Amino acid sequence: MPADVCDDMVWTYFKHVHFFLPVVDAQGFLNDYHEQGPHKKHDLLFWSMMLAATNFADADLLRRSDFPSRKAMKTAMYKRAKCLYDLDRATEKLKLIQSVILLSFWYTDPQDHTGAWYWIGIAISLAQGIGLHRNPRSSGRTRQIYPQEQALRRRIWWSCVVRDRWVSLAKGRPMRIHGEDCDLPFPTSRDVLQELDSVADDARRRFIPADSTALTSLWLRLVRISDVLGGILRLHYRVSGPDPTADDIDKYSQQIESLSATNSGIMDEWSDTLSIHAYQIDLFYQSVIPFLNGVI
């Protein structure tokens, strides 16, 4: 891809994807990209990011990319990422998990077995294999994990949880992650925002949305909504055990109600990016309510 197209795709990724699924080390990626240029970043993670960003590419970006359609561009990005995944060129484990999570954006038709369900399943297996679901303080780890890596690991794991919940709901299939197996704390805004302070000024101005703090708050709300959804899905999909009770429904109803938007609507002064994210989070929130009411 031409350099200007790569730049715009990276901007699109951080505008539309990163604050919904903050799995990428923004500091490391953007500083390398800023110093080395787009033609040095053709690894598995890069093409996985491009695949995710293609979902939000506008008509002008598609035209400048010389692709006849969004589907054609997605197919090309996916094939490049999938080829590198199949080659297994000694990719670092965390980077492999990041890439596979983003490959879950791939979807062609219901008959394709390598869609979101397939890729998020691989991501969860890899993440559990290196203990991302466990709190380092309680899992008896011998290797010291520095705070910045801990923040990244929390973001990656909870992104797996979010994708697991919503793909499970969309597909009508059991979840792969169960809360009783995990003790990793919820992520915090610091986990997302602190690394942005170390992004080079030029790269930050070019690629990071100005309202990153508010976008991070929206993601944290999505994480909590997804966590409650997990409990509801557990009631809905289990094939044995006691039937859900009114107390179960009341408990989850109170939990989901506590996560309702604090604002009465989208504020006029919000940016388009922030407004779109807020509307999407509200759609996720609203979709949980009828599903909860249908459990009994």
UniProtKB/TrEMBL annotation:
GO biological process, one term: DNA-templated transcription
Listed PANTHER family: FARB-RELATED, ZN(II)2CYS6 TRANSCRIPTION FACTOR (EUROFUNG)
Coiled-coil features, chain-numbered ranges: none
Species name: Fusarium musae
Lineage: Eukaryota, Fungi, Dikarya, Ascomycota, Pezizomycotina
Keyword Lipoprotein: no
Keyword terms, alphabetized: Nucleus
UniProt name for this protein: Xylanolytic transcriptional activator regulatory domain-containing protein
Signal peptide feature range: none
Xylanolytic transcriptional activator regulatory domain boundaries: 116-193
GO molecular function: DNA binding; zinc ion binding
Keyword Magnesium among record annotations: no
Matches recorded under InterPro entries: Fungal_Detox/Toxin_TFs (IPR052761), XnlR_reg_dom (IPR007219)
Taxonomic superkingdom: Eukaryota
